[in-house]
Inverse folding.
């Protein structure tokens, strides 16, 4: 009799179409997030010409995004484990929008930097919340492929931002107009979070979902993750510190070092995103089928070694090293982020992703400032 009663209350798993709809909706928040982050790079020379910003000032606008996350993103991960993914996604999505709006409010460095600071407080924690949500919905079910699709949608935001000098060329007559476009894109951070809230709330009444922890987070848990987790974290900080700070100044580098136009420089920088958009889901699908995650991570890391030397010291067409970088940029995330979901308990995923992202942001902040200082000197 008891078995009959248990069977009666058991709920089915969410249908496949519902899971994929949730993935697309929550990825829209990432789309807006990525667009706002990359809106500064194509605008660098305009900020320099119209507002008198130095390279160090421009580096600060991206570095200050990372600086608060040295601590905030870990707290954000704990908040996610405490209040759940849908509330956390909404909270951090609102912060992203407010930060983007403040950035365009004034042409003074303190105000713009404050806007980027607020945006940073929400943006990285939003990524952690979305990542945790996807792990919840897809763990054991095409997880790497799901991460790949999520990153493809997110990087559409980067691709659109880096190519804005082409599709919104007229906007670059004034520093403010491209940033107003970014405010419009930031609305996706809120709308994506809102629709995800509705979909998950509905699913909780009808389907069986992975359990979320809402218990108090214990700080000592930070030191209880296994060795495999820390290997993945080490790869994370090394890999992203070699990619994102370069992107901050990539368009400017292509213009000054190789005589490219702003439009072509933006296109070259967006190739990194374009290759990743196409290849990340494919690599994710491959990894889901064949495994060998550590081997794929090692191969992707090795691809980066010759790229910067080729761009700095040879006349090889820039399309080639940027394509190789794009392949590495798609292979590593397709393997690295899903791996955490398999080596960390689901109730601690928010904290695990938050800690990993916190360590990553230390590298991003330091290298953005270092490259800006080196360029000025």
């Amino acid at each position: 009799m008891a078995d009959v009663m248990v069977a009666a209350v058991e709920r089915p798993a969410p249908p496949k179409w519902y899971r994929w709809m949730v993935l697309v909706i929550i990825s829209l928040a990432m789309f807006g997030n990525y667009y706002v982050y990359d809106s500064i790079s194509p605008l660098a020379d305009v900020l320099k010409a119209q507002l008198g910003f130095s390279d160090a000032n421009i580096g600060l606008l991206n570095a200050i995004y990372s600086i608060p996350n040295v601590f905030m993103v870990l707290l954000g991960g704990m908040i996610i484990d405490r209040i759940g993914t849908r509330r956390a996604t909404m909270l951090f999505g609102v912060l992203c929008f407010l930060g983007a709006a403040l950035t365009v409010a004034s042409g003074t460095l303190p105000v713009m930097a404050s806007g980027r600071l607020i945006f940073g407080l929400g943006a990285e924690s939003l990524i952690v919340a979305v990542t945790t949500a996807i792990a919840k919905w897809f763990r054991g079910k095409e997880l790497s492929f799901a991460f790949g699709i999520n990153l493809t949608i997110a990087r559409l935001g980067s691709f659109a931002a880096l190519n804005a000098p082409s599709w919104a060329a007229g906007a670059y007559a004034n520093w403010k107009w491209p940033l107003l476009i970014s405010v419009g894109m930031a609305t996706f951070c809120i709308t994506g979070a809102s629709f995800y809230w509705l979909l998950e709330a509905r699913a909780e009444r009808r389907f069986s979902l992975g359990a979320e922890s809402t218990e108090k987070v214990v700080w000592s848990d930070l030191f209880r993750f296994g060795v495999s987790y820390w290997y993945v974290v080490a790869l994370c900080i090394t890999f992203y510190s070699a990619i994102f700070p370069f992107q901050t100044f990539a368009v400017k580098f292509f213009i000054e070092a190789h005589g490219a136009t702003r439009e072509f420089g933006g296109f070259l920088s967006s190739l990194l995103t374009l290759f990743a958009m196409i290849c990340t889901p494919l690599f994710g699908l491959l990894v889901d089928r064949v495994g060998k995650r550590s081997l794929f991570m090692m191969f992707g890391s090795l691809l980066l070694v010759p790229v910067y030397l080729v761009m700095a010291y040879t006349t090889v067409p820039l399309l080639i090293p940027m394509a190789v970088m794009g392949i590495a940029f798609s292979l590593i995330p397709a393997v690295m982020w899903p791996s955490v979901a398999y080596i960390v308990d689901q109730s601690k995923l928010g904290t695990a992703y938050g800690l990993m992202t916190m360590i990553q942001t230390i590298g991003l902040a330091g290298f953005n400032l270092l490259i800006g200082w080196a360029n000025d000197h």
